[in-house]
Design brief:
Structural class of chain A: mainly alpha
Organism (chain B): bioreactor metagenome
Protein name (chain B): Na+/H+ antiporter MnhB subunit-related protein domain-containing protein
Strand content of chain B: under 5%
Order of helices and strands of chain A: HHEEHHHHHHHHHHHHHHHHH
Oligomer: heterodimer
Largest sheet of chain A: 2 strands, antiparallel
Radius of gyration of chain B: 20 Å
Order of helices and strands of chain B: HHHHHH
Pfam family, one (chain B): MnhB
Shape of chain A: globular
Membrane topology (chain B): Multi-pass membrane protein
Keywords (chain B): Cell membrane, Membrane, Transmembrane, Transmembrane helix
Strand order of the largest sheet of chain A: 1-2
Radius of gyration of chain A: 22 Å
Number of helices of chain A: 19
Number of strands of chain A: 2
Distance between the termini of chain B: 12 Å
Chain lengths: 521, 160
Amino acid sequence: MNWNEHFPALLLIIPLFGAFLAPVCSLGGKMARNILLVAASFLTLVVAFLLWRSVLANGIQYYVMGGENFRLALPSGMALPVRIILEVDAFSAFMALCGSIAAFAGALFSVNYMNRFSGQSRFTSLYLLLATGMLGMMITGDLFNFFIFIEISSIASFGLIAFWRDKPSAIEASLKYTLVSQVGSMLILIAAGSLYGKYNALNMAAIGSSLTMGTMEKLALVFLVGSLAMKCGAFPMHMWLPDAYAEAPTGVTCLLVAVSQASLYGLMRVCFSIYGVAMGSTFVPWMIIIFGLASMFFGVSMAVVQHDIKRLMGYHSVSQVGYMLLGLGVGLLVLGDARGMADFGFTAIKGGVFHVFNYTMYKALLFLTAGALYYATGKKDLNEMGGLARRMPYTTFMFVIAAAAISGLPPFNGFVSKLLIYESSFAVHPSLAVVALLTSVLTLASFVKVFQTAFLGPEKNNLLHVQEVPPAMLLGMVVLTAAILGATLFPSWTLSNLVEPAARALVDQSGYIGAIVGGGM
Amino acid sequence: MRPLSVVVRTGCDLFAWFLIVFGANVIIHGDVTPGGGFQGGAVAATFITLLLVAYGGKKVFSWVRPGIFNGMLIFGLMAFFLLGLMGFPNSFFYNFIAVPHEVVQATGHGVIPPSGTIALMDIAVGIEVAGALSIIVLSMFRGIRLFREGPMEEESGHDR
C-alpha cells in the first residue's frame, strides 16, 4: 500500500484519532496527555508538509472516502460524483500547511500554559477536534462536508473559548460567537441545500461545472459570501472576534487565527472555483474589496485605543483580514479579463495568498507572546506592565520580530505581501492603496505603543519577580518565529515555491473542476 | 432535586427499561429504517434523565458511576474509528464487509448485517451518543445544584 496516496485522509485521521484518544490517554496522567497533544499535532504537520510536496509534484490530488478505490470519483454509470470527496490542490495544501504549523505551535505552547488548569483531557480533545475541523474545511471538495467541518470547528471553539467557565466574560464571548456563527452556518446550509436542489450535486467541482447564473445562484452566493466573511471576521460582522480571541486560552487563540483563515479559504473557493467566471458582474468582487477596506481601516482604528493586549491584537486581526480580502477581491475583479489578470490581478492574488501565510504566522506569534506576558505577569492590561524586556529577553525578541512583520517594515515578510497588494490595488484605484498604506502606518503606531508600554520603560515594583516563560512555551513561539524568518530571508524562494503554485491553483477553475468531473467542462 | 411522588416513581420503574430496549431497537435497525445511531442513542440516554427526574440526584448518583458513561463514550468513538480504519487498503471508511444484494437473496447474510460497516458504525455511534448524552444530563444536573441559593420555589404535593 502506498501511503502517499492516502495523505488527504491521513491529514484528517491523525488529529481526529488524537481527539478520540485524549480521554484514554488522560488516564495515563498529564505526561501521556501532553505527549499525545504534541505528537498528534506534529504528525499532522508532517503529513501536511508531505501532502503539500506531493501536490506540487503530481498536481491535484483527490480522495474518495469509502470508495472501493480512493480514486473512484465517478463510479460507473453515474453522471455526478456521489461520495465524500476530498480534493487537494496547491491552494488547499498551502492552507493546510499554514494551519498545521499554527496548530503545532499552539499545542507546544499549551503544554506549559494549561499546566495549572483542570479539565485538560477535554481541552486536548477539543483542541485536536478544532484542528480536524479546520483542516477538513481546507481540503474538502464537497459543499455539505464543508458545512459539517465548519460546524465541527465551531462547536469545538465554543467549548474552548468558554474554557475558563468561571469567568463571565469568557461565557459571554462564547455565547456571542455561538449565536453569530450558528446563524452563519445555517445560511451556508441553506445555500448548499439550494444548490443541491438545482444541480443534484454537492460536490464543488460538479456544481461549478454546470453552474449558470440565475436568481437562486445569486442568493446562494450572497449567503455563502456573507456568512464566510462573518466567520473570517470582516468588518460589519466582526464583533465576535476580539471577544473570542481575547477570552480563549492563548494556545487556542493561535489556532483560532488559522481557523478564521479556513473560512477565508472557503470564501475564495466559492468565489474562484465554484462561481468563477460565471459570476458575470463585478458586484461581488467590489463587495469583497469594500469589506476588505472597511475591515482594514475600522479594525486598526479600534485597535489603537485598546488597553487589553489580547483585545488589541484581536482588532488587528480584523484589519489584517482586510488585506487578504482586498488582494483576493482585486484578483476576483479581473478574473475573466486576461489582460488585467496579467497586469495586476495575479500579483494581487499572490499578495493575498502570501499574506495568508504571513498573517497566520505573525498573528499567531503575537498572540503567543501576549499569552506569555499574561503567564509571566498575570496581567492583561498594558498600563499595568512595563520594563519587561530585561526580565523576558526571548519573548521580547520574538515580539519585536512579529510586530515588525505585521507592521510591514522592510525586509520582513509582511512588507513583501503588503507591497504586492499595494501595487496591484493601486492599478484598480489609487484610493485602495491609500487606505492600505494608512492602515499599515496605524498598525505600526499601535505596536510601537505595545512595545513601549510593555517591554520598555522603568521596571514596575510589582513585576520584579517576573521570569522568562518555560521552555515548551518558548519552543512554540520559536516554531512561528522560524517560519517568519524563513519567509523573510528567502522571499523569492517563498514566492515561487509556496505562494505562486497556490495562487495559480486558485485561479485555475477548469483544473479544479476537471480533476473530479473529467471532461465535464 | 427531590424524588417525585410514588405514582411517578412507579411509572418510571415500569417504563424506564423500555427506553433502553426501544433505543437499542432504533440503533440496531438504523441501517434499514428511519433513525440510527444518534437517534437511538438519544432515546437510550433519556433513561438516565427519567431516573433523575423521578428519583432525584442523590439516589441516581449512588446507583451509577459517571465513569461508566465515559467508558461508553470512548468505546463508541474508538469502535467507529477502527471500523473506518479497517477499510484502509481501499480507502478510509470503505465498507469491507458489505454483503452484495444477490448473495443476500440467494443465501442470506448470516450474522453480519447486509449493510456491513454501516450497521456496525450505527451501533458504535449509538453507544457513544447514549454515553455522551448521559454525561451531559448528569453535568447539567450538577450545574443546577451550583445555583441553589436558598429555597427558590416551594414544591408541594410530594410524599417524600
